[in-house]
Amino acid sequence: MVYHSSFVGEEGITKACGFPLLPLKSHIKGPAPVSDQGKTDIVDEAITFFRANVFFRNFDVKSPADKLLIYLTFYINVALKRLEGCRTLAEGTKAIINLGLENVPVPGESGFPFPGLFVLPQSQKEAGKSLTIFFFI
């Protein structure tokens, strides 16, 4: 059974390229609102559901938050592949930091992993906002 996001009926959530800007538990200022520290955020859901969702080839998207969950599952998978060859904590930390510093393609650019899943940016500002979503997650 595929696990879907619990952020289905979030009213008033702004979006960038179809990505919902859901609240995150973070001390870093970004485009997403800050969540309560005790409340589960979308990153927590992605980590919790990763082991189950990674085995599914098809995923029925029920909400924009599910699209973000798919992207986060992909990102976690990429991060784990980067950590595969690391033998020490220092090597692993460096690998994850380097992953965060890489250029990330946004919807509409070549190399974006899900070309039909997300809306193309309508403006440069929206493209920049979606890019910050990728960097802060």
UniProtKB/TrEMBL annotation:
<dbReference type="Pfam" id="PF04062">
    <property type="entry name" value="P21-Arc"/>
</dbReference>
<protein>
    <recommendedName>
        <fullName>Actin-related protein 2/3 complex subunit 3</fullName>
    </recommendedName>
</protein>
<keyword id="KW-0009">Actin-binding</keyword>
<dbReference type="GO" id="GO:0003779">
    <property type="term" value="F:actin binding"/>
</dbReference>
<comment type="similarity">
    <text>Belongs to the ARPC3 family.</text>
</comment>
<dbReference type="GO" id="GO:0034314">
    <property type="term" value="P:Arp2/3 complex-mediated actin nucleation"/>
</dbReference>
<dbReference type="InterPro" id="IPR007204">
    <property type="entry name" value="ARPC3"/>
</dbReference>
<keyword id="KW-0963">Cytoplasm</keyword>
<dbReference type="GO" id="GO:0005885">
    <property type="term" value="C:Arp2/3 protein complex"/>
</dbReference>
<keyword id="KW-0206">Cytoskeleton</keyword>
<dbReference type="InterPro" id="IPR036753">
    <property type="entry name" value="ARPC3_sf"/>
</dbReference>
<dbReference type="GO" id="GO:0030833">
    <property type="term" value="P:regulation of actin filament polymerization"/>
</dbReference>
